[in-house]
Amino acid sequence: MEEKSLRVVGTDKTFFNKITNTLTKILIPTQIGINGMRISLKRNALIKAFEISEEENDISKKDIVDKKYEDAYTAYLEALDKYVLDTIYKKVKNETATKFESMALSQYYGIIQLKKNEYVEYKYRKQKYLLELDKETVFNTAKEKVIEKYKRFYISKQDTLYKGILKNYSIKLADNTNIYDSTKEWIYIKIFETLEDYIKNILPTKISEKKYENIVKEYEKYEKFSVGKLDARDNIEKNMILLGISRNLFTHSLPLVVAEQCYMKLLKDARCLVQDTKIAAKRDKAFTMLMNLIEDYNIRLLSTKVYWDNSINRESFKSFYDKYKIIEKLKETDFIEYIKQKEILFIREDMKKLNNEKTDYSQLIKYYKRKLVDYEVMKEIRNKISKTGKYIRYKNNAGIKEVISA
To answer: Would you kindly state where each structural domain of the chain is located, as residue ranges?
Structure first.
């Protein structure tokens, strides 16, 4: 009987179905109005509770005030959740939804699917989604005074949520080592996507604040990669900028050991790109990007590293960094020589590391050696190169030589 009833009601040709569709279309705007009023009331209560919580300095009252704010926030989210389920779902079902509403519902169910296997991410992402959904309404319809008050709450809460998401990814990666783990490739991708999402949607509202002066230039670099179609080199360079900015914004949520693994992933991608690119002009551009990445990794990250698992690696980096600081002095007097000496230093440093990598970088090593020959710090033995594949490398200005394999 139930199946038969559903078949009758489900046909567009029946008289009862036409009445049902008509009534639903009439009732939906009313439901939107009721939900809108409910959300508005909850939002106003939330903003007030947030302001009181921010301004309260009395420790004896702080817990009570914060509890009221958390309750108001929970009630606000429940109202937004009800709006999605009661209103947007019905409009999509009755084919009266806008493209934005259809996309919003699709995103909602994408987040719901995380609940079973990735509950922590689901918890943060659902809150983030609901806030983003209401922000559009507030910014488009509310008075300027309300917008400013809501914006302070919105930025504060989104900061907390993004930090929670990144911390969750960091826990999945952290294993007390700084070794890139290719089996966790999806986590690295998620980290870069989350960083870009934050820098695209949240940072612009804060960038004018004085405490963010030191990342303005980095943000401007990112903006160049935020539009248009990006190739593999562009994507690596963009992710390098995102990771650099994260060292200022998410120091605790994305700790150094995790950031180091992310740099390892980018270095692997950049090395493979240089090695696999056949067109000389594109390969040279990829090489320049790799040199910038090596500098970023060593100077921005390793130079700030306090605890080293391996004392040999620590001493090796100290030696490298001392040479780097000497080369830096050339920057003001002879820029061309500065670039040359820096590339020589980076190539030699990277070649040391490639021997310990699992990936076959033999073609990249040949490319590196060709660069060193061009810079006249390594000499090719031309009459033997086809048979033995050897070069002569000048170790110092005294002319001491060392024969090495190609």
So the answer is: 1-173
